[in-house]
């Protein structure tokens, strides 16, 4: 941007002193200013998208961690021996383990991991778009 400003100052000075100055040179320079402004705007927009994706990933990680903690607690409770008056047989224990895989905690953990994967993909896309948008235009 500084190079464009110095070029504008040079052309403005030349326009003041040279009667044969071609104004199309100024128009070309103004077009470069417009391109530079657009590139800066696009880079800021992509940076904001990348920041949003990072926040989304952090939220998904937190959600996934809480689901894993809940699932671990549920699993510990299911693994603890029953304090019933009569001894438990292996069959109900096997049934309890089968139900553990079908528990709401398992479904929630699966949903949480899917949200995390979606947030990671969104972050990667925002990073790639930011890399393309940040290429500077030189006059």
UniProtKB/TrEMBL annotation:
Region (Disordered): 72-113
Annotated protein name in UniProt: Uncharacterized protein
Source superkingdom: Eukaryota
Annotated source species: Musa balbisiana
């Amino acid at each position: 941007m500084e190079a464009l400003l110095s070029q504008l100052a040079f052309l403005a000075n030349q326009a003041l002193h040279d009667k044969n100055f071609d104004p199309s040179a100024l128009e070309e320079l103004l077009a470069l200013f417009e391109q530079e402004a657009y590139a800066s705007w696009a880079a800021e927009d992509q940076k904001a998208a990348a920041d949003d994706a990072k926040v989304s990933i952090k939220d998904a990680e937190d959600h996934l961690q809480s689901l894993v903690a809940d699932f671990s607690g549920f699993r510990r409770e299911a693994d603890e021996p029953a304090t019933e008056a009569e001894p438990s047989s292996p069959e109900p224990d096997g049934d309890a383990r089968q139900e553990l895989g079908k528990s709401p905690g398992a479904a929630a953990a699966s949903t949480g991991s899917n949200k995390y994967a979606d947030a990671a993909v969104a972050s990667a896309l925002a990073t790639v778009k930011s890399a393309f948008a940040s290429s500077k235009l030189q006059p």
